[in-house]
């Protein structure tokens, strides 16, 4: 994973709440054994509706997605994260995320920025009014700025550090190999399959 | 004073980072073909192995056909082949499609006795919360975490908060754990338990069978919870006794004795409490496109303009358009094309028995297609030994082999655009059962009653109709 400190780009807003991962990418498009090739299926059904912002040429090149609360609820499919990244998004901003989605995002290097609802709404207004509005997400200071609005980004210290360092989660864990082995010896005997 | 969550969490903590996450040891890791190929590929690229194959078990459920054999070509075959090759290469036990131990991952875990009190059980599937019914901490993870668990047998997480959902009283006849779950999600919303592990307690939970408890914990994720759990008791132990992975002999007695400590202390503090009086509940059904959009089956399609919350109002309006329903329509007047009985929510033997009890000796309404898909090969076998398959077939339903099937529509079982389905599964999301398909979540007995009349029907409505 590449380290991420600040991201500046244009935004696009989906003004819907509880956008579940089935809407981000339908199960029938998850039948692949790779992590790429999902972009064309991102929000596929909704993109066919007139006026849906993702895919609207006015927002071409947007890298920061704003959405209503509970974005990424539902299925644990990490394909939802891969599809967003494959399409070009590097940050998703919402006041609340589905737990598993947020964890998947962190592990795949997509920033799930938790921002208070009223600030999300104000920034949505800004990017809707002018798609060229510059949005900056700063993981060092844990802030987001867009269209004259600035708000804090909520993120645990560990998650922030992971983005700043760009470490692979497994490498971080394997630093504790001795502790894992000790735990195993004390508590986890080998299980013989019945 | 600690909660059940605290006790399991602390007993599995290998390392505390101080930065918000704890590294937890994973007692058992379940795999399926849908979320694992990229994880194994990651191991291969990094030259890593599966740390504890003995604590890992795979099955084929999401994409396998439930009619006929798995083809040799096509996307499903590619997914299944990948899993078979990966399990072989990394030494992981696999319950293949067509064998006696195969089934939906959350149905076979309990059947095999893998889901045990006090354990941490992870799986690359959101309904892993099901296994919490045994007093385990079980939750779903994504593919990157699957790779992490395969490589390290651990997972790092921030500790969730604890939420107590207490079910007071005795469930009325014809009202099931599924109805309770839908009622709860309707009350607290799809994000209502976000960041929390729900512990279900109270008289109604204690009175529930293991199957019903599994249904209840299964649906926790639909309220946004990290997991659902129920403290183990005699019902739990009775279910596990003699199962293949359950301890035996002296180890069994010791295990059962140790489970007594697995309960929240009387004075334990919960971050949130929800109380539900189940004595007044009746069968529930969803009208919208998320599992909080539910109403009593005796009710009507709600009017979104009555909702004071603009976001919820907006979501409800979208949902009604998608579902092609008008506010004020009595739920009982909504006709269905398809009835689906199955899934990790309601594909266990108790569910099939309950539905068969209503169908026995009757025919489903003409024009209705009913799929009965057992949750596992073992459930199928048990049902057949009781003659339930005959009941379903004579009623005009299709009797299938085990898999996820119409819950997720990754195999050939799907709704056509515009088709309406009464489904015992867990998600009524847009397109979940097939592009343009419309889902009404119901309990197994409501599904059976609906199949008989062709309209959404509560089991208690049947008496008057017959
Ligand atoms: S039955 Fe449905 S919810 Fe359960 S594991 Fe299969 S796809 Fe997921």
TrEMBL record, chain A:
Gene: leuD_1
SUPFAM superfamilies registered for this protein in UniProt: LeuD/IlvD-like
Alphabetical list of Pfam families matching this protein: Aconitase_C
Origin: domain of life: Bacteria
Record InterPro entries: 3-IsopropMal_deHydase_ssu, Aconitase/3IPM_dehydase_swvl, AconitaseA/IPMdHydase_ssu_swvl, IPMI_Swivel, LeuD
Job description of the protein: Catalyzes the isomerization between 2-isopropylmalate and 3-isopropylmalate, via the formation of 2-isopropylmaleate.
Domain Aconitase A/isopropylmalate dehydratase small subunit swivel: 59-114
Family membership: Belongs to the LeuD family. LeuD type 1 subfamily.
Listed EC numbers: 4.2.1.33
Catalytic activity from the UniProt record: (2R,3S)-3-isopropylmalate = (2S)-2-isopropylmalate
Subunit and interaction comment: Heterodimer of LeuC and LeuD.
Name under which the protein is recorded: 3-isopropylmalate dehydratase small subunit
Lineage of the species this protein comes from: Bacteria, Bacillati, Actinomycetota, Actinomycetes, Pseudonocardiales
TrEMBL record, chain B:
Binding of [4Fe-4S] cluster, residues: 344, 404, 407
Cofactor: [4Fe-4S] cluster
Cofactor descriptive note: Binds 1 [4Fe-4S] cluster per subunit.
Domain of life: Bacteria
Statement: the UniProt record of this protein carries the keyword Amino-acid biosynthesis: yes
Keywords tagged on the record: 4Fe-4S, Amino-acid biosynthesis, Branched-chain amino acid biosynthesis, Iron, Iron-sulfur, Leucine biosynthesis, Lyase, Metal-binding
EC nos: 4.2.1.33
Keyword Amino-acid biosynthesis: yes
Pathway(s) this gene product operates in, as recorded in its UniProt entry: Amino-acid biosynthesis; L-leucine biosynthesis; L-leucine from 3-methyl-2-oxobutanoate: step 2/4
Catalytic activity: (2R,3S)-3-isopropylmalate = (2S)-2-isopropylmalate
InterPro entries tied to this protein: 3-IsopropMal_deHydase_lsu, Acnase/IPM_dHydase_lsu_aba_1/3, Acoase/IPM_deHydtase_lsu_aba, Aconitase_4Fe-4S_BS, Aconitase_4Fe-4S_dom, IPM_dehydratase_rel_enz, IPMI_cat
Domain Aconitase/3-isopropylmalate dehydratase large subunit alpha/beta/alpha span(s) in chain numbering: 6-454
Entry-linked HAMAP family: LeuC_type1
Membership in a protein family: Belongs to the aconitase/IPM isomerase family. LeuC type 1 subfamily.
Subunit structure: Heterodimer of LeuC and LeuD.
Annotated function: Catalyzes the isomerization between 2-isopropylmalate and 3-isopropylmalate, via the formation of 2-isopropylmaleate.
Protein name: 3-isopropylmalate dehydratase large subunit
Organism: Pseudonocardia ailaonensis
Lineage, highest ranks first: Bacteria, Bacillati, Actinomycetota, Actinomycetes, Pseudonocardiales
